[in-house]
UniProtKB/TrEMBL annotation:
This is Alpha-N-acetylglucosaminidase. The lineage of its organism: Eukaryota, Viridiplantae, Streptophyta, Embryophyta, Tracheophyta. Residues 501-799 form the Alpha-N-acetylglucosaminidase C-terminal domain. GO terms for molecular function: alpha-N-acetylglucosaminidase activity. InterPro entries: GH, Hex-like_dom2, NAGLU, NAGLU_C, NAGLU_N, NAGLU_tim-barrel.
C-alpha cells in the first residue's frame, strides 16, 4: 500500500506543476481542442456536403462561413443572416458558425423554425422536407439576424454499448448518414469506438501475444461492447482478420468525417482488461480473474475475464502503448479518452487512499501516451453501485487526477441525477446525460418535462460544474420526439414549454397542423412521455419478455382463496387497465400511465389518417402507437389467462390465452406494414458484412442471439439476459415470440385439463431447444413492408376497442 501512496504523490508532482481552477482548466482544454480542428475551408465544405446530401435542390441557397468564437464572446454559436432578398437566384441565407457542427446545426435550426421541416433517423420515419419552399422563395430571418449560442461547450453522444446494440452491422453508407444526423443535431463530442480490436491486436502482438491467443479474448461482433468492458470473452467469436481489418478502415472513415465537421471524437483507452495468456507471459504481473458476469453456470469458455491491476507498472505500459498506437493510426485527433475501469467492477477495498492511487494510475496510462489526455468516465457506477461509492470513495476517485483532466457523464440524469447529491461531483466537470433506452428495446417512453428543464436546473445551480449535455441511450432509432428535444437542449439557455413545443414538433414532423394530432400529442405528453416513477424502462411487455415462472398458487401460502382472488382482481379501471398491485405475486410489466387515455390518442391518430397519405413519419408513429396500445392489452390478456388458470376456469383460460396469441399475430401483421419494424433488415445487414460462408453463419448467429437469448443457457435454464435486447419486429414475433407463448400455454392447458402440476422444467427444455435452433437458423425474412398501415391500424382498433 505504501508503494501505491508513493506513486500517487509522484503523479501529483508530475502532472500538476501549476494548479488550475476548474473553469481555467476547461478553457485551456477548449483552446487546445480548437487548435486541432480542420481548417475553416474544410469545415465549410463538409457542412455544404451535408446540405447537398440532405437537400440537393437547395445547394446554392445557403452560404456557410466559419467565424471565430470572439463573435459570440467566446462561446460556440451559429448565426443566421439574409443574403440577398432582392434576388430569387443564388444564395438567400448566410449561416455563420464557430465549427462545421455549428454550421450544420444552424442549417437544421433554420429548416425547422423557418421552413417547418423535420429530420429524424430513417428508421423512425426519416425526413419531412416537403414543407421547405423552392429555391428562391426561402423565408427571410429578421433583418438583424439570429444568434444562437451554446450555454455549455459540449453535446456528447453514445453509450459504450450503442456500438453493439445499434451500430454493429453498419457500413460506411449508414455511418455517413449518422454523422450527418449528429452534425445537424449539434453533437460535437461523439464516442468513436469502432475498430479498436484491430489496434489491440497490434498492441498485444508487440507484447508477444500471438493472433491465435487473442481468439478467445475478443467477443463476437454483436458482443464486442461487453468483451471490451471485461464482462465476457469469446462469446460469439472468434473475430476474423477480415472483420478486424475492415473495421479499422471504417473507423478511419468515421474519424475523418467527424474531424472535417469540427467534432472532437472520444477514443477508447485501457481499462485493465487483458487476455488470459498475458498471465503466462508476465507471471509476476498483478493479474486477477474476475468473478462471474451473468453466465448460467460459470462456463470458463466465456466467463470470468482477467484484469490487470492499475497499480502494476505493466498497466501504465500497456495503456500508454494503446494510446500511442491509436495516434500512430489516426493522427493526433483528440485529447479525450473514455475509460470505465470500475464500471460493474468495484475496487477490492473501500480505502479512499487506495482508490485515489488506482485512479491516478489509470490516468497516468493515458498521460504517458498523450500528455494532454483528459479522462472521460461514465458515471453509471455511482448509481448502479451506490452501496460502494459513498462520498469518501467517490471523492477519492474524482480527485485522483488534476482538475480539468476528468469529465464525468452523469449518465442517468434524466431519471436519477448524481450531480445534485454529490456537490456537483465534488467540483469535477460533468455532462448532463439522457440515458432513456436499454438494450435497444422498442417502447414509447420518455420524461419530456425532465429533459426540458433538467439541464437548465443543473447549469444554473450554485457552483455548477456542468460542461455539456449528452445522449447515452443503449440503442437508437426510436422515440424521435425525445431525441429532438434533447438535442435542442444543447442550444437552449432557458426551459422549454413542452406543450407548445410539441405543437410545433408535430407540425414539422407531419408537414401540417391537424387538430386531432395536436390533441393526441397533448395526451401523449401527459401519459407515455411523462414517466415519473423513477423506474429504468426496460421493455417488460409479456410478448417480448415472457415470464419464466410457475403460475400455480403456492400451496404453502397462508393467503385465503377469497383474499387471493380479491388481490388478483384489484384493478383501478380509471388509471390502470393492467394489474399493478405490487403486493401480488404476479409478474409486473412496467406501466406508468392510463392506458385508456392512450387509446383515445390512438383513435385521434387514426381519425387524422386521411390527412397524411404517403407520410412516412405519420406511418411510423401510427404503427408505433398502435403497437404500444396492443402490447399493453396483451399484458392484460396474459394476466387474465393466469387468473383463469388459478381459478381453474377452463373456458376463461382458453379465451384469454387465445386472445394473447392472436394479439401477437395481429401485432406482427401491423409491424410488417412499415419498413422500420422488420427483423429481416437486421439479419440481412449482418450477413451483408460477411465475405465467406463461415462469417455469414457467425454474423447471423450473433444477430439472432443478441435480440433473443443474448447469453448462454443450459438444457433447463434460460440465459440470465434473455430478452434484454428484445425487439418488436415483424418476423421476430411470428417466428420466435409466438411459438414461445404457444408452447407455454399448451403446457399450462395440459396442467389445467389433466389436473396435474405445471411442469415448468419440461416447458423450459422445449423452449430452450427451440430457441437454440432458431438462433442457429437461416430462414429468410422480408426486408420490405407489406400492407396498408392505416387500414390495419383501423381494423385492429375496431377489433379490440370499438
Amino acid at each position: 500500500m505504501s508503494n501505491l501512496k508513493t506513486l500517487l504523490l509522484i503523479l501529483n508532482l508530475l502532472l500538476v506543476p501549476v494548479a488550475l481552477s476548474e473553469p481555467e482548466a476547461i478553457q485551456k482544454l477548449l483552446r487546445r481542442l480548437d487548435s486541432k480542428r480542420a481548417p475553416a475551408s474544410v469545415q465549410e465544405a463538409a457542412a455544404k456536403a451535408v446540405l447537398k446530401r440532405l437537400l440537393p435542390t437547395h445547394e446554392a441557397s445557403f452560404v456557410f462561413e466559419i467565424v471565430p468564437k470572439d463573435v459570440c464572446r467566446g462561446h460556440s454559436c451559429f448565426k443566421l443572416h439574409n443574403y440577398n432578398l432582392s434576388s430569387q437566384h443564388g444564395p438567400q441565407i448566410i449561416i455563420e458558425g464557430t465549427t462545421g457542427v455549428e454550421l450544420a446545426s444552424g442549417l437544421h435550426w433554420y429548416l425547422k423554425y423557418w421552413c417547418g421541416a423535420h429530420i429524424s433517423w430513417d428508421k423512425t420515419g426519416g425526413t419531412q422536407i416537403a414543407s421547405i419552399p423552392n429555391p428562391g422563395y426561402l423565408p427571410p430571418v429578421k433583418d438583424e439576424g439570429i444568434t444562437i449560442k451554446r450555454p455549455v461547450p459540449w453535446n456528447y453522444y453514445q453509450n459504450v454499448v450503442t456500438s453493439s446494440y445499434s451500430f454493429v452491422w453498419w457500413d460506411w453508407e449508414r455511418w455517413e448518414k449518422e454523422i450527418d444526423w449528429m452534425a445537424l443535431q449539434g453533437i460535437n463530442l461523439p464516442l468513436a469506438f469502432t475498430g479498436q480490436e484491430s489496434i489491440w491486436q497490434k498492441v498485444f502482438m508487440d507484447f508477444n501475444i500471438s493472433k491465435e491467443n487473442l481468439n478467445d479474448f475478443f467477443g463476437g461482433p454483436a458482443f464486442l461492447a461487453w468483451a471490451r468492458m471485461g464482462n465476457l470473452h469469446a462469446w460469439g467469436g472468434t473475430l476474423s482478420q477480415n472483420w478486424l481489418d475492415k473495421q479499422l478502415v471504417l473507423q478511419k472513415q468515421i474519424l475523418s468525417r467527424m474531424l472535417e465537421l469540427g467534432m472532437t471524437p472520444v477514443l477508447p483507452s485501457f481499462s485493465g482488461n487483458v487476455p488470459a495468456t498475458l498471465k503466462k507471459i508476465r507471471p509476476s504481473a498483478n493479474i486477477t480473474r474476475l468473478g462471474d458476469w451473468n453466465t448460467v453456470d460459470g462456463d470458463p469458455r466465456w466467463c470470468c475475464t482477467y484484469l490487470l491491476d492499475p497499480s502494476d507498472p505493466l498497466f501504465v505500459e500497456l495503456g500508454a502503448a494503446f494510446i500511442k498506437k491509436q495516434i500512430k493510426e489516426y493522427g493526433d485527433v483528440t485529447d479525450i479518452y473514455n475509460c470505465d475501469t470500475f464500471n460493474e467492477n468495484s475496487p477490492p477495498t473501500t480505502d479512499p487512499a487506495y482508490i485515489s492511487s488506482l485512479g491516478a494510475a489509470v490516468y497516468k496510462a493515458m498521460w504517458e501516451g498523450d500528455k494532454d489526455a483528459v479522462w472521460l468516465m461514465q458515471g453509471w457506477l455511482f448509481y448502479s453501485d451506490s452501496a460502494f461509492w459513498k462520498p469518501p470513495q467517490t471523492k477519492a476517485l474524482l480527485h485522483s487526477v488534476p482538475f480539468g483532466k476528468m469529465i464525468v457523464l452523469d449518465l442517468f440524469a434524466d431519471v436519477k441525477p448524481i450531480w445534485n447529491t454529490s456537490s456537483q461531483f465534488y467540483g469535477t466537470p460533468y455532462v448532463w446525460c439522457l440515458l432513456h433506452n436499454f438494450g435497444g428495446n422498442i417502447e414509447m417512453y420518455g420524461v419530456l418535462d425532465a429533459v426540458s428543464s433538467g439541464p437548465i436546473d443543473a447549469r444554473i445551480s450554485k457552483n455548477s460544474t456542468m460542461v455539456g449535455v449528452g445522449m447515452c441511450m443503449e440503442g437508437i432509432e426510436h422515440n424521435p420526439v425525445v431525441y429532438e428535444l434533447m438535442s435542442e437542449m444543447a442550444f437552449r439557455s432557458e426551459k422549454v414549454y413542452v406543450q407548445e413545443w410539441l405543437k410545433s414538433y408535430s407540425r414539422r414532423r407531419y408537414g401540417k397542423a391537424v387538430h386531432q394530432i395536436d390533441a393526441a400529442w397533448e395526451i401523449l405528453h401527459h401519459t407515455i412521455y411523462n414517466c415519473t416513477d423513477g423506474i429504468a424502462d426496460h421493455n417488460t411487455d409479456f410478448i417480448v419478455k415472457f415470464p419464466d415462472w410457475d403460475p400455480q398458487v403456492n400451496p404453502r401460502s397462508n393467503i385465503s382463496r377469497h383474499n387471493l382472488l380479491q388481490m388478483l382482481l384489484r384493478i383501478d379501471v380509471k388509471r390502470r387497465s393492467l394489474l399493478q398491485d405490487t403486493s401480488s405475486d404476479l409478474p409486473q410489466a412496467h406501466l406508468w400511465y392510463s392506458t385508456q387515455e392512450v387509446i383515445k390518442a390512438l383513435k385521434l391518430f387514426i381519425d387524422a389518417g386521411s390527412e397524411f397519405a404517403g407520410s412516412l413519419t405519420y406511418r411510423y408513429d401510427l404503427v408505433d402507437l398502435t403497437r404500444q396500445v396492443l402490447s399493453k392489452l396483451a399484458n392484460q390478456a396474459y394476466l387474465d389467462t393466469v387468473i383463469a388458470f388459478r381459478r381453474k376456469d377452463v373456458n376463461a383460460y382458453r379465451l384469454n390465452s387465445q386472445k394473447f396469441v392472436q394479439l401477437v399475430r395481429d401485432i406482427d401483421e401491423l409491424l410488417a406494414s412499415d419498413d422500420n419494424f422488420l427483423l429481416g433488415t437486421w439479419l440481412e445487414s449482418a450477413k451483408k458484412l460477411a465475405v465467406n460462408p463461415r462469417e455469414r453463419r457467425q454474423y447471423e448467429w450473433n444477430a439472432r442471439t443478441q435480440i433473443t437469448m443474448w447469453y448462454d443457457t443450459t438444457k433447463t435454464e434460460q440465459s440470465k439476459l434473455h430478452d434484454y435486447a428484445n425487439k418488436f419486429w415483424s418476423g421476430l414475433l411470428e417466428s420466435y415470440y409466438l411459438p414461445r407463448a404457444s408452447a407455454y400455454f399448451n403446457h399450462l392447458s395440459k396442467s389445467l385439463t389433466e389436473d396435474e402440476n405445471f411442469k415448468l422444467e419440461e416447458w423450459r427444455k422445449e423452449w430452450i431447444l427451440f430457441s437454440n435452433n432458431w438462433q442457429s437458423g437461416n430462414d429468410i425474412y422480408p426486408v420490405k413492408a407489406k400492407g396498408d398501415a392505416l387500414a390495419i391500424s383501423k381494423s385492429l382498433y375496431e377489433k379490440y376497442f370499438s
